[in-house]
Amino acid sequence: MRIERLTAERAEQMSALLDVFADAFEDPEHYSSARPDRAYLAKLMTRSEFIALVATEGDQTIGGLCAYELMKFEQARSEIYIYDLAVAESHRRRGIATALIEELQRIAAASGAFVIYVQADYGDEPAIALYTKLGVREDVMHFDIPVAMQ
Questions:
Q1: CATH code, domain carrying 106
Q2: 64 lies in which domain range?
Q3: Are 113 and 75 in contact (CB under 8 A)?
């Protein structure tokens, strides 16, 4: 197994990662119905604050994560938010998610980030167990605010 950060030159590999996310989250509508084109993904991947890591075995993408580095305004530091993390069902329980987070920790340390944070849904026991093993739990509320005013 190999873990690496995707670059704009390898934007097409995001498609395989989106397939992993669609399967793992059982959400093909969200991850497959309106995929951005290669130019959009390449532009996204040129941004230093976007981090896409993939775990591969041979030429197969078996997991990955996407994260964002958020520059803070109250102090000269940043935080990294794991937006999505998934491992193909056939490859779970082998330390791949932990290895992805460990690679993100190396990237975060190199960028001078203060902390990495992630959300987990109530009832998603495997994710809760993983994040509990690696970090400190905080119970917070999450709100989605629509862009359009009502």
A1: 3.40.630.30
A2: 2-134
A3: no
* % the chain with pLDDT above 90: 71
User: Which residues make beta-bridge pairs with 72?
Assistant: none
Does residue 146 belong to any structural domain of this protein? no
- β-pairing, 115-118 vs 78-87, is parallel
- The domain tally of the chain equals 1
Q: How does DSSP assign 5-20, residue by residue?
A: E--GGGTTHHHHHHHH
Evaluate whether residue 142 is within a structural domain.
no
pTM reported for the whole predicted model: 0.88
- The average confidence (pLDDT) of the chain is 91
SS3 assignment for 106-150? HHHHHHCCCEEEECCCCCCHHHHHHHHHHCCCCCCCCCCCCCCCC
pLDDT, tens only, 79-137: 999 999 999 999 999 999 999 999 999 999 999 999 999 988 888 888 887 888 888 88
